[in-house]
Design brief:
This protein is an alpha+beta fold. Helix content is about 40%, strand content about 20%. An eight-stranded mixed beta sheet has the order 1-5-6-11-10-9-7-8, with helices on both faces. The protein has a five-stranded mixed beta sheet with strand order 13-12-14-15-16, sandwiched between helices. It starts with a helix and ends in a 15-residue tail after the last helix.
Length: about 450
């Protein structure tokens, strides 16, 4: 077989795999997703947040205006295409720009201010897949739009920290904070920063050479060693902050101290999106630093104007669910499983199968999680299958049991079994399982 044929076969095989950087979320991983969503919903609702979902696709202009043309996301990482009407659409690489677009479009400025929103959403970036970095990834996010106050910034940081505490991983991270100023005080700093780097371009990595005149603040948080050395020598922003920004930052630190939240002041922290102003913060791994950050956020007081709206302040936070799960697993954090099966129903014969169908439905209506092998397997094969489901009990229904109106309850761990009347089996099962372990909900209740 020629190399060309081998390569063609490999290409066809690749097409039957998930795309690079996009992964299937299998049932065991969904247990973590379910638990994280539950924690986020609980904490967000406690604090008065309401859930929002924005479309997977937005007009590309939403991100170009909001995130900035000079950012890596817009320049290199967006999934963008033209639809049949020649309109440029992009799969959302982040959610804040879309949330602010929704705030403007739906007149949320008329709602009680500030508007507090949270989301649990998939996002897409055409980035090089590596540990903790995917092309499709999920984020949880919090946004407070409509008011500017350091107490709101402190509340967002506090809520993010409480979520991490609930998930059993807060002790792994430090909260890094900085204030990158308002446009008034940042302009002079940017110019002096560019002047410092002029003549030193050869010491910069290729990305930073491109950033120098487009997005000079990003020079400060580059991870390349030579760039880090220069960043240590570069002018520090705290010398340029205007009195208003200094006061805002001081108050934020006072509020965080009042909330007993430990933080690290990091003058090189700038974040990678153009819309940030004032407060920025990230949640860094204590041992790996920014390389294993799980989330971050900050204030974006000018974003609404960039998108054609009225001046509207805002602050937010987002964290990667996959990275959270990786850290939960590292800490051996066990999450409750909602998928464990209570009962397996084994049957033989057509009459038993009919009874089994009704019995399964009746069990499930009472909150018992039950499965049955409705194929033609032997009783021995069905009991082996019950072992694989790791059920504590199996109900056995055969021709004799149907005729006599009884059913066998088998204790799978002990191998013991007893016969009970068919009419009482559901109550017997509930006693064995325990009412507190049943999966119950009220008919008509909205679940999400």
């Amino acid at each position: 077989m020629t190399d060309e044929n081998t390569q063609a076969q490999q290409t066809e095989a690749d097409k039957r795999q998930n795309p690079l950087g996009m992964h299937d979320i299998l049932p065991d991983m969904h247990e973590y997703f379910t638990y994280i969503k539950k924690v986020v919903r609980h904490r967000a609702r406690q604090a008065g947040y309401k859930r929002i979902t924005t479309p997977i696709l937005e007009f590309t202009d939403v991100f170009q205006r909001g995130i900035g043309d000079a950012t890596d996301i817009v320049g290199k990482e967006m999934y963008t295409f033209t639809d049949r009407n020649e309109r440029s659409l992009t799969m959302k690489p982040e959610s804040t720009a879309g949330v602010v677009r929704a705030y403007i479009q739906h007149g949320m400025k008329e709602w009680p201010q500030p508007v507090q929103l949270y989301y649990i959403e998939p996002h897409f970036r055409y980035d090089k897949p590596q540990k903790g970095r995917y092309r499709q990834f999920w984020q949880i996010g919090l946004e407070i739009i409509g008011e500017s106050d350091p107490a709101l910034d402190a509340q967002v940081i506090d809520l993010a920290n409480r979520i991490n505490q609930d998930l059993g991983i807060a002790h792994l991270f430090t909260i890094q904070i900085n204030n990158i100023g308002c446009p008034k005080c940042r302009g002079k700093y940017k110019q002096d920063l560019v002047n410092f780097y002029i003549g030193k371009e050869r010491s910069l990595c290729e990305d930073c050479q491109n950033r120098l005149h487009k997005n000079p603040l990003r020079l400060l948080d580059c991870k390349q060693e030579d760039c880090q050395i220069l960043a240590q020598l570069a002018p520090k922003f705290d010398q340029y902050r205007c009195p208003e920004c200094k006061e805002f930052h001081t108050k934020l630190k006072d509020y965080l101290t009042e909330l007993k939240i430990e933080f690290v002041e990091n003058p090189k922290l700038v974040r990678g999106l153009d819309y940030y102003t004032g407060t920025v913060f990230e949640v860094w791994d204590k041992t790996q630093g920014a390389q294993n950050a799980i989330g971050g956020g900050g204030r974006y007081d000018g974003l609404a104007e960039l998108m054609g709206g009225l001046p509207t302040p805002g602050v937010g936070y987002a964290a990667g669910i996959e990275r959270i799960i990786a850290n939960m697993k590292k800490e051996n954090v066990r999450v409750p499983s909602k998928d464990d099966i209570h009962i397996f129903v084994a049957q033989l014969g057509d009459d038993a199968k009919k009874k089994c169908l009704t019995l399964l439905n009746d069990l499930r209506e009472r909150g018992v999680k039950a499965v049955g092998a409705l194929g033609k397997g032997s009783m021995k094969a069905q009991l082996r299958l019950a072992d694989k489901f790791k059920v504590p009990y199996t109900l056995i229904l055969g021709i004799t049991e149907v005729r006599e109106g009884v059913i066998i309850i088998r204790n799978m761990a002990k191998g013991q079994q007893r016969t009970v009347p068919h009419d009482t089996v559901i109550e017997e099962v509930i006693k064995l399982i325990g009412d507190d372990k049943l999966d119950k909900y009220s008919p008509g209740e909205v679940l999400y």
